[in-house]
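input
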Amino acid sequence: MAREEQRSEVPRWRAWRNPPGVVWLVALAAALATMLWAVTYPGFASVPMLIALLGMLVLGSIWLVRLIGWVIDRDRRDAWRWCAAPLMVVLTGVLVVTDVPLRVRFELARDDFDRVVEDLPARGSFDAWAPLSVPDSVGGYEIVRAYQVGEMVILYEGEGLAFHDAGFAYLPSGPDDRLGNGSFEAPRFQSLGGRWYAWRASW
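output
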């Protein structure tokens, strides 16, 4: 009881020398979740990514100020509570670097993408891509353009990658350097399994 009374008498400024509380951790979790959603796209969703980065900047500044206050305080308590935020950030970083969010979301939508290319006759060539009519939304992704290059299918996703293009590609024989051209410059392909790839390219 005495200890509770002692804590209630702690000045408010002293709170800035304690590890962030539950509300701060929930806010950080929301920012990290927003970032994970942003990278479920073959490029990334610009607005959610910007919101996530700004949120992390603000929350990170608060965390750093509190940590400095805790370090210079003589009465340091609950050191283990400082580990939660770094662990959350590191875990999110690992998921982003290994493309887990994109792979998981695509896997859930794979059947929709497979239906797009099912029984599709070969059309077009490397020199003349054939436009392909597809639904505006495939597996929850906005598809703004689609082309055939022989048996290959190139889908342009609406979010893109900032000032570049991004999307999905069905490549039965794998990536082909001949796909690169003036409007599909230096494409980079990332295997999603089952002949499907995510791609990013300049324009």
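quick obs: The CA atoms of residues 103 and 112 lie 15 Å apart.
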